Amino acid sequence: xxxxxxxxxxxxxxxxxxxxxxxxxxxxxxxxxxxxxxxxxxxxxxxxxxxxxxxxxxxxxxxxxxxxxxxxxxxxxxxxxxxxxxxxxxxxxxxxxxxxxxxxxxxxxxxxxxxxxxxxxxxxxxxxxxxxxxxxxxxxxxxxx
Length: 145
Prior knowledge:
Elements: H1 2-75, H2 79-99, H3 102-123, H4 129-144
């Protein structure tokens, strides 16, 4: 009678220790899962920020290219093509404003208003708008770097 009771206690003890060790393993897996999940969230935010930065830079580069073309057209007194290039540059600035942070949005909005005044000068066939375009190109070059 004593042997079955001892055997039962040993069986319960081994079952209890196995259960405890097994549950400790699942707790460890849950901790690793949560850690990995948090790391992935952080990395995802970093990647999104980098993508936004790249989009902003690409829009700024496109704007510089369009402004260079517009300046060249103004110097060649091709005002119709220059006005089209200025319009495209404004569209590119709009895209840059959409993906930029608040401080840059303010600067880009100012550049956009300057482009509108340059466009008005071009409509009046004013060749003096070429230095203004060049100044904006330099400002954008500083912002893109």
